[in-house]
Specification:
There is one protein chain. The chain is mainly beta. It contains two helices and 15 strands. It has one domain: Jelly Rolls (Sandwich), CATH 2.60.120. The strands form four sheets. Strands 3-4-5-13-8-11 form a six-stranded antiparallel sheet, with no helix packed on it. Strands 6-7-12-9-10 form a five-stranded antiparallel sheet. Bound molecules: fe (ii) ion.
Length: 204
């Protein structure tokens, strides 16, 4: 009897600078109507939905995974379209990994954005990404992509397949501790007055 493990068969991925992945196994899309409560300026969000429609695509994720067991990787691209809501730049919903010690690597392929990161005990970090710049997001950090440019912000990411995502952590806290807003020709991370602090850390 063989003692070799069952193995996955390697697949070729062709990843374009614009974020397309030939060979992907999944695409996840978010529409304007899905973004309720994500931005501080609810009125601006409602006006945008009324004007542009709830079914306008705002960001998407393509990825490839063999399975979701420990040891496997999920690799993919995230594409966030440009724009503002009130004075906030376009964001992804953001999450902490359900297995919270799992790290994630992000490499900017095109556009200009910010990787916004916060810990449950209140540390904050916002790193600007342009093509060729990357961030290795450590475990235990809530993270979100922000498009601060005027073209799609595309990152290549890679993380442990068993990480999972907890999206409620930000909504439960009234939003992230900081928000990324328009500041002249650039951006600034400023305190979010609606933030109530993150919930107690639950080890898993
Ligand atoms: Fe993540």
């Amino acid at each position: 009897m063989s003692t070799h493990p069952q193995v996955d068969i390697p697949v070729l991925l062709e990843i374009s600078r614009g974020g397309g992945i030939k060979g992907r196994s999944r695409r996840y899309e978010k529409f304007l109507g899905d973004m309720e409560g994500v931005y501080r300026d609810d009125e601006a969000w409602r006006a945008a939905v009324a004007e542009r429609g709830a079914d306008e695509l705002v960001y998407w994720v393509d990825d490839q995974r063999y399975h979701e067991g420990p040891g496997a990787l999920i690799v993919g691209t995230s594409t966030v379209l440009p724009g503002t809501m009130g004075d906030e730049f376009a964001v992804t919903r953001g999450h902490i990994h359900a297995v919270s010690d799992r790290a994630e690597f992000y490499y900017c392929m095109s556009g200009r954005g910010v990787m916004q990161m916060e810990t449950l005990d209140g540390q904050v970090s916002a790193i600007e990404l342009t093509p060729g710049r990357a961030v290795n997001v450590p475990g235990h950090w809530i993270h979100r992509s922000v498009n601060v440019g005027d073209e799609p912000f595309v990152t290549l990411f890679c993380y442990a397949a068993d990480a999972g995502q907890d999206y409620g952590v930000i909504a439960d806290a009234g939003g992230m501790k900081q928000i990324i807003v328009v500041d002249g020709d650039g951006w600034a991370a400023v305190p979010n007055p609606d933030h109530r602090g993150y919930r107690e850390y639950v080890a898993n």
